[in-house]
């Protein structure tokens, strides 16, 4: 990431800010999140688009966002409530975004990266993944994922820009196996504490097909479990996205680990595929969003200077969460994002199969 990446994109300027607010007000009650999370159900892909743009002069900063197949006004309404790593303009005082209060920047000690022990670690993680109990999801059931997350972003008040963070908050998501029904509760993107629907078809009557960037469980069950073929598919389908093909392949696999439910054989194959990506390293001590220490499989994005880390329990090798840490020193306004800044962090708390939408594992008994 260079100084150019701090420039506002058209979606960050005053005119678009006004468009965001106006369009959001015009949406029917209870439908804001439909667009926000078909973006979020695809928010990992919108992130990819921003990573691609960030590599070009005048691009915007990479954020944790999926690529929505929706029109600009609707996209504006969606983005109006989404937590992004970008420049936020506010009149100051009592700042809240999407219902999540802001606080000081998140920081950490930059862990030492090494390739020593990487093949063995990924083998152990792959074996643990293959042995993990992954029951088959039946029609009528839902995949429930509960996590906590936070991020750090540049905030502008008047003519002063500083670093701030969105406080750690809980996110709950339900998805049907075919991806056509779902629900999200996330104060960072929901206007209502009750959450909002993710169900299809969308407002235009369209049902986008599942894909790597926005997969359904049924889609994942049909993917090859041969690591070489799987990685080739990832490279092919993400061509032209992100800052480099290798970084985008790594990010794509990381996205599949967080808010999807890969079958056991595929889950194992994903780690074997990751072992074949150049530049992957080990960070022997990394901490997830709720403070759990573990070992990380990581890769540095040379363009942004950020290192993506997948964090695993050191003994069981269970996936705990992920974080993105600024490693390289930047210039211009971006120099505020110093090495050690945690631009995004998450922790998976529960992943289960439930029989009803908005049902939690404890309610399932």
- Distance between the first and last residues' Cα: 48 Å
Number of strands: 13
Can you give the mean pLDDT? 79
Oligomeric status of the shown chains? single chain
Count of helical stretches: 10
Helical amount: 25-40%
Q: Output the radius of gyration.
A: 19 Å
The helix-and-strand class reads: alpha+beta
Q: Write the H/E string, N to C.
A: HHHHEEEEHEEEEHHHHEEEEEH
Main β-sheet: number of strands, strand sense, barrel status? 13 strands, mixed
Low-confidence stretches: 1-96
Strand content of the residues, in percent? Answer: 25-35%
Instruction: Estimate the global geometry from the Cα principal axes.
Output: globular
In short, what is this structure?
By secondary structure, the chain is α+β, with helices and mostly antiparallel strands. Helix content is 28%, strand content 26%.
Written account of the structure:
The protein is α+β, with helices and mostly antiparallel strands and 365 residues long. Helices cover 28% and strands 26% of the residues. It has helices at 14-26, 32-40, 43-54, 72-80, 118-131, 217-221, 227-237, 245-258, 264-274, 361-364; strands at 87-90, 96-97, 100-103, 113-114, 142-157, 160-175, 182-185, 196-197, 281-287, 293-301, 306-312, 319-326, 342-354. Strands 1, 2, 3, 4, 5, 6, 7, 8, 9, 10, 11, 12 and 13 form a 13-stranded mixed beta sheet that branches. A hairpin with a 2-residue loop joins β5 (142-157) and β6. The longest helix is centred in the middle third of the chain and has 14 residues, at 118-131. The protein is globular and about 50 Å long. It starts with 13 loop residues before the first helix and ends with a helix.
